[in-house]
Amino acid sequence: MAFVDSIDDNLSLSSTPHAVDRINKDFYGRFPFPWRPKSVDSTSDPDFVQIMLNQNLGDWTHQMVPATPHIWVAGCGTNQAAITAVHFPNAAVLGSDISETSLGICQATAQDLGCTNLELCNESINQSGYEQRFDYIICTGVIHHNADPEATLRKLAGALKPAGVLELMVYNRYHRILTAAFQKGVRLLAQTELQPDFQKELFITRALANDFPGQGLMRQFVNNFKQAPDPQIADALIQPVENSYTVDTLEDMARRCDLEFLAPSPSSMSNVLDGVSHVNWNLRFSQADIQKEYDKLPDSCRWQITNLLLCESSPMLWFYLRRTDSPKKRNTEQQICDSFLRTRFKPNTVRRDAYVLTQDNKYRKVKSALPYPGLPSKLQLRQIVEATAMGLPMGRTLDSLHISRDFATINDLRLRLTTSVSPFLRSIA
User: Fold this and answer.
1) What is the pLDDT of residue 279?
2) Residue 363 forms part of a structural domain
3) Which residues are CB-neighbours of 143 under 8 A, at least 6 positions away?
4) Is 26 helix (H, G, I), strand (E, B) or coil?
5) In what order do the strands lie in the sheet with 70-74?
6) 70, β-bridge pairs
7) How far apart, in whole angstroms, are the C-alpha atoms of residue 134 and residue 153?
8) Is residue 364 in some structural domain?
9) Does some domain include residue 371?
10) CB 44 within 8 A of CB 117
11) At what angle do helices 100-113 and 17-30 cross, to 10 degrees?
C-alpha cells in the first residue's frame, strides 16, 4: 500500500494550462480517440435515454434533466457528441474539443447518423466562457489531462444552470498505478520529460509490448496492447499529462468548485444488460453488525470505504454532480431506495435500431423488429419485471415475491432494473 500512496501522477509535462492545451491538441491530432464504434444504437422512443438518465439520478418523475435539455459534451473526442445527439433527439447538443482532427471525425459521424441537433466547436474547456447555460454537461475522461483540473472543473460548474447535472469521470488512482509508472518510464527512456516526442514514445512502447524485459504485473499489463491500434496504445500508455483521484480527493476538489455528488453513474460499474456481473459502490459484509454500521454512513463515506477496500477492483470514478446552490433537494441513496419502493413501474418496451459501420466507413441504419430490452435472464429479476403487471408499488411487488427490503438488496435491485445500463423498468410518474 505504501507504493500506492507514494506514486506520483504523470505530470512531468504539466506546466501552464495553455502549454498543456497545446500538448493535448498535438497529441489528439496525432492520435484521435476513441476510434469509431462498430455500431451506434437508437430507440423508437425519443425520450428513452432522458427518462433512464433521470432514473439513474433517482428521479422517478423524469424531470431533473428536462425533456428538451441544453447539453454540453465537453471534450467530446471523435464520437461522444454525435452519439449524445442521437440519444437525445429533443436536445440542443454542443460538442467541443481541443482537437480539430477529432471534431472532423465527429462531424462525419454526425452526418452519417443524421444529427440535426448538434453544434461542434473547436475550443478548450479552459478557454470557454459559458455561464449557467446547460441543463446537463457530460465530461468523461477529460479534466484529468489538464494542467489544473480544478480550474477546468470550475469552468464546467460555472456553465451549469442552477439545477443542472454534471456527469464527470476522472481516473481512479488505484486503477492507474501501472499506467502512470509505464508512462513515466517510457518518457525517461525516450528522454522526452521536457519535450514530448510521440512518435519516439510510440516506437518504444510497441517494442516493450512485443518483448517486455521483465516479469510480473507490468509485463502482463503491457502484453495486452500487442495488437492495439495506435490511438488505443497512445491513450493508455503515452498520454502526456495524467492526474488521478480517489473518492475523497475528488469530493474535496468538487467542493472547492461548489459542486457535490448526486449519485454514481451506472457507467462506472462493470455490467451486462441484466446486471449479472454488477459491481456496486456499496459493499456487502457477512457480519451483520459491520453491515449495519456501514449502511448508516453518509453516501460518500461508504463510497470512500469501497474505494479503499476494493482498491484496484473498485469501480471507475464516474459520478453525477450538481451545484451546491441547486434549488432542488439532494436525495441520499437511502432516500432514493425509499422512493423506489413507493413507485409503480412498467416494463420498457421500445424498439432499438442501430447505425452499423460498413466497409466504406459509413454508418447505415439497420432497423430491428425485436423489443428492447426484453426480459432479464436472471430469474429473480425476471419475476420482478413480470410482477409489475399487477400495478402495485415496488415495495408491495417485492413483498409478494418475499424479497427482503434491506438497503443493500433494494439498492442493488434498483440498479439492476431501472438504470440506463439495465433499463428493464420505467416508472409510472
Assistant:
1) 60
2) no
3) 75, 125, 149, 152, 153, 156, 168, 170
4) helix
5) 118-122, 92-97, 70-74, 134-140, 160-170, 317-323, 259-264
6) 92
7) 14
8) no
9) no
10) no
11) 50
- Which residue stretches of the chain have pLDDT < 50? 1-7, 271-278
Mark which of 237, 262, 281 sits at the end of a domain.
Answer: 237
Q: Which residue has the cell 480527493?
A: 249
Q: How far apart are CA 140 and CA 120, in angstroms?
A: 17
53 with 65, same domain: the answer is yes
| pLDDT of 368 | 82
What is the total count of domains within the chain? 3
Grid coordinates in use for 24?
Answer: 493535448
The DSSP bridge partners found for residue 43 are 352
Separation between Cα atoms, residue 325 and residue 302, nearest integer Å? 24
Between the CA of residue 195 and those of 21, 235, 240, 344, what are the distances in Å? 14, 18, 10, 59
CA 428 to CA 133: how far, in whole Å? 30
Q: Read off the C-alpha cell for 149.
A: 483540473
Report pLDDT for 8. 60
pLDDT at 277: 46
- Same domain membership, residue 415 and residue 388: yes
Element (H, E) at 85: helix 80-87
CB-based contact 408:333 (threshold 8 Å): no
| Gap between the Cα atoms of 2 and 316, Å rounded | 22
3-state percent helix, strand, coil for the chain, nearest multiple of 5: 45, 20, 35
Say what the pLDDT of residue 14 is: 77
The range of the structural domain enclosing residue 226 comes to: 2-15+178-237
Q: For 168, left (φ over 0), alpha (ψ -120 to 50), or beta?
A: beta
What confidence score (pLDDT) does residue 269 get?
64
Assess if residue 9 is contained within a domain. Answer: yes
Q: Give the number of other CB atoms < 10 A from CB of residue 194.
A: 9
Cis omega (within 30 of 0) for bond into 229: no
The total number of residues shown for the chain amounts to: 429
Q: Which of 309, 335, 361 is the last residue of a domain?
A: 335
